[in-house]
Amino acid sequence: MWWIVSIIAVVLVASAALLAYLTAHRLDRLHIRTDLAAAALYEAFLRRHTVAVAIAEGLGPHDERAAEWLHSCAARAKHRSADKFTPGAPQTGIEQAENDLTSALSDLPPESMGPHLRAEATDVGDRLEMARRFYNDAVRDTRRLREKKVVSWFRLAGSAPMPEYIELVDPSYN
């Protein structure tokens, strides 16, 4: 009779170990996915900063005030994200700077930009929105798995910080 209890105990321990291993492996893949999505989002930020500067430089002399504001917003956004966008760090400064840049770009009348810059601004806005969605989807999946009991019981997350969502206003460059 004792050997049946021993077999059941071995099966339970092996099942728990297998569950922990598979969960840890999935969690590692999700953290990698979140890091890659954060890198793509950071690259989209940098591309938009470049386009914003090009738009500001392309504005005519009658739009000097708008050009200065756009330069200021682009410089502040670039400075905020210069320390690299990281999934576990609070992103409030980056969010605010990027939202200000979005607002500055949205306030420009479409005719103040040439058709090439307008198309570029629309493209970079679309790419930024897709990068933000991919990043937030990766964060959602990672957080969902990290909130499971097995992750906290076996400390499967290690020292990796809990990733945070990033909220950006939707661009409306026409």
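The record above closes out task 2.4. Task 2.5 opens with a second protein, given below.
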Amino acid sequence: MNFLRTIRVHRQPDDTRKGIIVAENRTILCALGRSGPSVFKREGDGATPANRYLYPISGFFRADRVQRPKSALAFEALTPDDGWCDAPADANYNMPVKLPFGASHEVMTRQDKLYDIGIILDWNMPVAGRKRFGGSAIFFHLCKPGYTPTEGCIAVEEADMRWLLQYMTTDTRIFVHR
């Protein structure tokens, strides 16, 4: 198989917080945001951005827990001082930061496995014109058991993530259907 051009994410009919990824001839279960897909994404709403293409920028992984994924995407190993700013009023909003950091942020080296492997998606990033309160830290990462909802990200099992990453590039489009 060649690289994936498009990955489609459909919400499950019985639970909009869960989805089905269609990539070529494969279907993969996933978790979506606690508010399901939305075309009106805002900071803290728990929605997964929908009805627009999301592109992978780069990836991250926990080198102390997992091996670097095989992928054409650039991957960096997380360190304990890696964070992600989610404070809309801060100049670093929706960007990686080094800890300690004074404004609201996520710690990237989480205790759970969710960020053991992840992809940064281009949602509300500076290149496309970042908007305050437009939503931050929209990642494609590993899921919790039972595909429990995320804060707006897309999440899959590690084996599914590793399979997808083999075929993803920065040109792969991810489309979440509303």
